Amino acid sequence: MQVVDNLVALRTRIKNWRADNEVIAFVPTMGNLHQGHLSLVKKAAELADRVVVSIFVNPLQFNDKQDLDNYPRTLNDDIKQLSELRCDLVFTPDDSIMYPRGMSNQTSVHVPGMDDKLCGLGRPGHFDGVATVVTKLLNMVQTDIAVFGEKDYQQLLLIRQLVQDLNLPMDIIGAPTCREQDGLAMSSRNQRLTESEREKAPLLYQQLQAVKTALLENRQGLDAALADAQSQLSEAGFETEYLEVRRADNLQPLQSGETTTARILVAARLGSVRLIDNILCDLA
């Protein structure tokens, strides 16, 4: 496994693989890797001859400087974990590589229809930062396949849309959310939970399941199910940002009686930590 931090070395390796007609898969990350990230790398290895992983904490997608400052940087441990998998190259650029003229002078990529709902409402500018850095990384790596987790479901749809809209020649693969044994979706943010908060955190997934059960049994009772779930979360100390049922294909609101594939999505703060999760609900 090779570790590179500059474009010349990255493109030299990619060019050699291209000359051998090898299929390349890419997994972009912000580091602090856990089993959820590693599952994406394993998925990439199943789909391609070569696997590239990037590690870059992208300041452009943080609207809260404290959140950016608190994001864990564990590069040496991340590289060690990747070395134990079938990962061929790790790309570790810094801000000077990604934004050589500074973030304020960086061309921005905006994907319509994402900043007016769900995470877009609570994190202004976040998805422009995601779209911009992902577009840059996809162009840098020139991959055939890119793998993203379904836990960040709105982000996954955003990336699929930008790839389609910009005619980027690659496939975007979504991989299932990895969970702890108690159901909590794996996240780098989980380690910031206190012991007491960590005990409460699985309730987020439990309430998603409760809403799903209620929806499948009685679609007309959706509002009551959502209200009850929010009440349960509030009593446990969560500050719910949103808990909604949306169409899975475009995140538009689900209409009453609509027969389609839906996603139940939630974002909530527990103490100082913002947690997100979602599950599939097939109403077809």
General description of the model:
With 284 residues, this protein is an alpha/beta fold. It has 2 domains: 2-175, HUPs (Rossmann fold), CATH 3.40.50; 188-282, Pantoate--beta-alanine Ligase, Chain: A,domain 2 (2-Layer Sandwich). It contains 11 helices and 9 strands. The chain has helices spanning 7-19, 35-47, 65-70, 75-83, 95-98, 119-122, 126-141, 153-165, 195-200, 203-217, 222-235, and strands at 2-4, 24-29, 50-55, 89-91, 145-149, 171-175, 238-247, 261-270, 273-282. A 6-stranded parallel β-sheet has the order 1-4-3-2-5-6, with helices on both faces. The chain has a 3-stranded antiparallel β-sheet with strand order 7-8-9, covered by helices on one side. Helix 7 (126-141) packs across helix 8 (153-165) and helix 10 (203-217) packs antiparallel against helix 11 (222-235). The mean pLDDT is 95.
